[in-house]
Write a structure and sequence with these properties.
Blueprint lengths: L2 E5 L2 E3 L5 E8 L8 E6 L6 E6 L5 E3 L7 E6 L4 E6 L8 E7 L8 E2 L3 E5 L2
Length: 117
């Protein structure tokens, strides 16, 4: 049974940083692509970042230069380091992993990120 568990969300002031984690069981991150999505109120789900099994990364233009996706194969965990956060980054952030990523495969429940003063 595949399970993805996100953590690390919270309330942060504009300009602050957070690191999100996505811990997996039942799917091996080192041989599967992983993506972070976000879903803001009243908006469509947005692809934020992806990392391939080979370690190649891609980012949405809205987060490029501020966010970084990485993977710890020993812990079977993927991270999203988010710096210089803006109010428009407020959303539920979801982890997506497995064959067919981005968009297909397995999903976590999400972690809330709120950027507000």
């Amino acid at each position: 049974q595949v399970q993805l568990v996100e953590s690390g969300g919270g309330l942060v002031q504009p300009g602050g940083s957070l690191r999100l984690s996505c811990a997996a069981s039942g799917v091996i991150f080192s041989i599967n692509p992983v993506a972070w999505y976000r879903r803001a109120p009243g908006k469509q789900r947005e692809l934020v970042a992806t990392i391939t099994s080979g370690g190649n990364t891609n980012y949405a233009n809205s987060v490029k230069g501020r966010f970084a996706i990485s993977r710890d194969n020993a812990k079977n965990t993927v991270y999203l380091q988010m710096n210089s956060l803006k109010p428009e980054d407020t959303a539920v952030y979801l982890c997506n992993a497995g064959p067919g990523v981005p968009g297909l495969g397995y999903w976590g429940q999400g972690t809330q990120v709120t950027v507000s003063s």
